[in-house]
Amino acid sequence: MFAAPARLAWLDALRGPAALAVTLHHAGWTFVPGVWAELDRRIDLGSWGVLVFFLVSGYIIPASLERRGDLRAFWTGRAFRLLPLLLAASCLALLLTAAGVLPASPGLGERPWPLVALGNVSMLQELLNLPALINVTWTLSYEMAFYLISVALFATRQAHRSAGIALTLALAAVPLGLLLPRATIGGRADLAAALLGLAVVAAIAVTVLASEGARTVAAVAGGGLGLALVVLGSRGGTWQGVIILAVMFTGTALYRAEQGTISWRAAGTTAAVVAVCGIPAKDDPAWGAAVVAAFGAFALAYALRGRSFPRWLPWLGLVSFSVYLLHPILLHLVPDLPLFLLALIPLSALTYQLIEKPGQRLGRRLISRTPR
Fold first, then answer.
1. Which of 167, 145, 164 is nearest to 231 (CA)?
2. Of 201, 232, 233, 230, nearest to 218 (Cα)?
3. Residue 127 near residue 141 (C-beta atoms within 8 A)
């Protein structure tokens, strides 16, 4: 009934509830909006879920990068972790949209298809002001920006500065948010979006394929582009976008404290400052409650990391990416909440087995065969 404690089982035990929180947020507004409105004005469960995801990514991504010690292996692993399911789900969403089953994303028919494809495959559509084929993939744009910045820090041997980076971002988010309340990369700037998206893809490609010197230059360029896109392109406003980055680097600071690179006092101070600066990033008390609850949930899971968890909880974390990507599609295919909940988990388990796991295995094989 209970699984033996694994080194990172506590992270999977966080991912599962986070994915379910986002799912319930969208399902509540779809099926029981009157009831959900009462809960949502107290705490935004959807924001809680994505903030937990961001903290988890901040903790695990630099650890993964440093464990591999190789930028090629990192980007290969990320590509084969995310793209197989993302491409499959996006194609399904497109087919269902063409069939009239799913509503089209705003602006989907107004922007050039190659540009929309570039934005969604690169996972930067949110920061390039491009339509998303699946609405929840806006979070992947911030994940990509974080990857780019983390790779730049690793390539320049500055990765240990995560606490200072988180503090700087949090403190800068307030004046930047007041000065840039809306994205300045916006409108119908197709050429700018195309050039920026291609520049990021080129930076990643050079990082993966080029020699060491060019790889470092490309990594730094990619990190600069990632930061600029968040500051200038966040559709939720610069304050909120920069705070999201600060939240991820807070996760990294907590990892550094665990490894003994920085003190727990420094990590705790970082978390407190980021939370305080993040609470007013959105003019909604439910957002502030979500920020506090996300940090609290992460702290609780970390405190329990040596304990055994019920087997279903880490397993739910394994299929959480499928739950996250598929639930917006399934919402339009089933007529009521009970049927939606009954169908989602088995479907996610199936796509995990048939798409996610094979993709991860292929990625690992490619990494093992690729010279550093």
1. 145
2. 201
3. yes
pLDDT tens readout for residues 278-323? 999 998 999 999 999 999 999 999 999 988 889 999 999 999 999 9
The amino acid present at 171, given as its one-letter code, is L
Are 51 and 290 spatial neighbours (Cβ–Cβ below 8 Å)? yes
CA-wise closest residue to 224 among 241, 205, 199? 199
Rounded CA gap, 246 and 365, in Å?
34
Q: Please tell me the distance from the alpha carbon of residue 235 to that of residue 247, in angstroms, as a whole number.
A: 18
Q: How far apart (Å, rounded) are the C-alpha atoms in residues 214 and 66?
A: 20
The 3-state secondary structure of the chain, one letter per residue: CEECCCCCHHHHHHHHHHHHHHHHHHHHHHHCHHHHHHHHCCCCHHHHHHHHHHHHHHHHHHHHHHHHCCHHHHHHHHHHHHHHHHHHHHHHHHHHHHCCCCCCCCCCCCCCHHHHHHHHHCCCCCCCCCCCCCHHHHHHHHHHHHHHHHHHHHHCCCHHHHHHHHHHHHHHHHHHHHHCCCCCCCCCCHHHHHHHHHHHHHHHHHHHHCCHHHHHHHHHHHHHHHHHHHHHHCCCCHHHHHHHHHHHHHHHHHHHHHHCCCCHHHHHHHHHHHHHHHHHHCCCHHHHHHHHHHHHHHHHHHHCCCCCEECHHHHHHHCHHHHHHHHHHHCCCCCCHHHHHHHHHHHHHHHHHHHHHHHHHHHHHHHHHCCC
For the stretch 2-37, pLDDT in tens is: 554 566 899 999 999 999 999 999 999 999 999 999
Long-range CB pairs of 63-70, under 8 A, 24+ apart, other chains included: 63/255, 65/150, 65/151, 65/154, 65/159, 66/154, 66/159, 68/367, 70/372
